[in-house]
UniProtKB/TrEMBL annotation:
<keyword id="KW-0472">Membrane</keyword>
<keyword id="KW-0812">Transmembrane</keyword>
<feature type="transmembrane region" description="Helical">
    <location>
        <begin position="65"/>
        <end position="83"/>
    </location>
</feature>
<feature type="transmembrane region" description="Helical">
    <location>
        <begin position="148"/>
        <end position="168"/>
    </location>
</feature>
<dbReference type="Pfam" id="PF03729">
    <property type="entry name" value="DUF308"/>
</dbReference>
<dbReference type="InterPro" id="IPR052712">
    <property type="entry name" value="Acid_resist_chaperone_HdeD"/>
</dbReference>
<keyword id="KW-1133">Transmembrane helix</keyword>
<feature type="transmembrane region" description="Helical">
    <location>
        <begin position="89"/>
        <end position="109"/>
    </location>
</feature>
<dbReference type="InterPro" id="IPR005325">
    <property type="entry name" value="DUF308_memb"/>
</dbReference>
<protein>
    <submittedName>
        <fullName>HdeD family acid-resistance protein</fullName>
    </submittedName>
</protein>
<feature type="transmembrane region" description="Helical">
    <location>
        <begin position="33"/>
        <end position="53"/>
    </location>
</feature>
<feature type="transmembrane region" description="Helical">
    <location>
        <begin position="7"/>
        <end position="27"/>
    </location>
</feature>
<feature type="transmembrane region" description="Helical">
    <location>
        <begin position="121"/>
        <end position="142"/>
    </location>
</feature>
């Protein structure tokens, strides 16, 4: 239990980063493809690094899935940053695959953590939102970059809120405060 509760702040940082990224995407939906690629790449890289770090701090049950999710985030971020001239459709597929794979990883980690923490459904919810987001991108690839910016922004804000809520639930559990 201590491994999970000591790293509550990693969930908080991931959530805050997601909310900030989402708000920026919503404020400036007309950004050029280059700016969107850089924003996404930076977010995926930071999120992946924190997921990887959390994976090394957790017990054996959830470690592999968090490490896997972190590696996928880091790779997606590096791909986006290495090739900023990527077309919007290629960016759409990179984002969609990353969202689906990391979402499934978080759902599995949440299920595995059911016996170790309360309210693991928040991690599962974040993962489910990620999978739904990825599937929607694959279902309508021709939606255009403006739509992609809005979808990414909305997803990131909702996902960030779920991670922030989970972080505070885990922190409250750490401090011995009763968790409703």
């Amino acid at each position: 239990m201590g491994d999970i509760t000591r790293s509550w702040w990693l969930l908080l940082v991931r959530g805050i980063a997601a909310v900030i990224f989402g708000i920026l995407a919503l404020i400036w939906p007309g950004l050029t493809l280059l700016a969107l690629v850089i924003f996404f790449g930076a977010y995926a890289l930071v999120s992946g690094l924190f997921a990887l770090f959390a994976g090394f701090r957790h017990g054996a049950q959830s470690r592999a899935w968090l490490i896997f999710s972190g590696i996928i985030g880091i790779v997606a971020g590096l791909v986006a940053l290495a090739w900023p001239g990527i077309t919007s459709i290629a960016l759409l597929f990179v984002v969609a695959v990353w969202a689906i794979v990391s979402g499934v990883s978080e759902i599995v980690a949440g299920i595995q953590l059911r016996k170790r923490i309360d309210n693991e459904w928040l991690l599962i919810l974040g993962g489910a939102l990620s999978v739904i987001f990825g599937v929607l991108l694959l279902a309508w690839p021709g939606a255009g970059l403006l739509s992609l910016a809005w979808l990414i922004g909305i997803f990131a804000v909702l996902y960030g809120i779920a991670m922030i809520a989970l972080a505070f639930r885990v922190k409250n559990f750490t401090s011995g405060a009763p968790v409703p």
